[in-house]
Amino acid sequence: MYLVYKYKLMKPITLCFLFASIWLRSQQTVSYEQGMLSPTAKLDTISWLAGHWKGEAFGGIVEEIWSPPQNGSMMFSFRLIADGAVGFYEFGHIIETNGTLLLQLKHFDADLNGWEEKDETVDFKLVKITEDRLYFDDFTIEYISDKEINMYVDVGEGDGKSNEVKFNYHRQ
Question: DSSP character for 8?
Fold first, then answer.
């Protein structure tokens, strides 16, 4: 009887752990928490990111062009083309600073009107780096092969809820 009771008790708990592990595996971004320290990293370890990449997201074609690492910086441009028109642009870089990496960007509409204030950038601190992934704050870049990468961005919903978007890119 004890074993039957124990099994019945463990079954819901096991299901909870199973669902939690599936959810955690599907969540590709991690957040930078107050008090964390970014890991040591150099741009040379992510030179695979340099190049011209295209994919689909936000109901259109997305394109990114990354420069090779040089003098502590990798710059990039991004654009979304949807319904036959430019939706928006991003311009930015990953820089080496204080022994780690920082991703900074600015958004612009189709007429190059900035979304952020003149002297403001959107900053993504490095949380973790592995052989094939860069985990910035709510922004992950994943190396699949020399011809394919994924980017995962938590675009949020303004009410504290997570909304992760996957960008699958192929080298052009």
Answer: H
Fill in the DSSP letter of residue 155. -
Start-to-end Cα distance in the chain: 64
The pLDDT mean for the chain works out to 86
d(CA 142, CA 150): 5
Sequence ranges of the domains in the chain = 31-171
Q: Does the structure show a pLDDT above 50 at 142?
A: yes
List, in sequence order, every residue forming a beta bridge with 54; answer none if it has no partner: 63, 170
Alpha-carbon separation of residue 106 from 10, 16, 48, 74, 91 (angstroms): 50, 40, 23, 15, 6
Evaluate whether 93 touches 73 at the Cβ level (below 8 Å).
yes
What percentage of the chain reaches a pLDDT higher than 90?
Answer: 74
pLDDT of residue 159: 66
Q: Give residue 26's pLDDT.
A: 61
Task: For the domain made up of 31-171, give the CATH fold.
Answer: Lipocalin (2.40.128)
